[in-house]
Amino acid sequence: MGQCGITSSKTVLVFLNLIFWAAAGILCYVGAYVFITYDDYDHFFEDVYTLIPAVIIIAVGALLFIIGLIGCCATVRESYCGLTTFVVILLLVFMTEVAVVVLGYVYRAKVEDEVNGSIIKVYDEYNGTNSNSQSRAIDYVQRQLQCCGIHNYSDWQHTRWYEESKNNSVPVSCCKASIGSCTGSLTRPEDLYQEGCEALVVKKLKEIMMYVIWTALTFAAIQMLGMLCACVVLCRGSRDLPYEPLVTGGTYA
């Protein structure tokens, strides 16, 4: 019965190591996705530490490739030293992912304050040229999120760009995609996106952080199962080893 338990645990452990390899790819993908997406919104928050969870997730993903290799080799060869190393590394990675979850919640709570504190300044620095990074960021966000202005399209009337252009219009990126003749004129407000961008940017950034949190939680649970199976193999397998008395110098009578 004990041998059956060991065999079952080893089978599950090998299968979990294959999952670890797949998880490594997924974690690296999620981390890269967060980096790429945040790059599009980086003008709306100033705290660079917001990306720390993404950095940790990519590092954990790379480490999981090595963990999967160690786990498979140690399980197949029944190496107790290898399995012990496997459990210790898994425990460290598990603790790291718990830290990612905590940091994710901390920075998710800070997103709204970050965006609220910087979005007015970004809109005020808009000049409508492609060479201006703030202009590119705002045009991208307004098209991507289908929004206009901070709270609504009327916010553009309080910007430096509106005062200098003096044409009673908002950027063309405020125009609904379905209306090809739209020029951004405020005389035709029905052609413009009605929702402001501030709330949508906050929502988008919070969603991205939740992807990180749920990814870390999911694979932390899988790693717990991996540690449990490895401990079962270690504990039961060690009892099945033959007893070898320690031989010291001297002779027996």
UniProtKB/TrEMBL annotation:
One of its GO terms (cellular component) is plasma membrane. The keyword NAD does not apply. PROSITE patterns: TM4_1. The keyword DNA damage does not apply. It comes from Stegastes partitus. It comes from the Eukaryota. The chain crosses the membrane at residues 12-36, 48-74, 86-107, 208-235. Keywords: Glycoprotein, Membrane, Transmembrane, Transmembrane helix. It is found in: Membrane. This is Tetraspanin. It is a multi-pass membrane protein. InterPro entries: Tetraspanin/Peripherin, Tetraspanin_animals, Tetraspanin_CS, Tetraspanin_EC2_sf. Regulates the proliferation and migration of oligodendrocytes, a process essential for normal myelination and repair. Belongs to the tetraspanin (TM4SF) family. Interacts with claudin-11/CLDN11 and integrins.
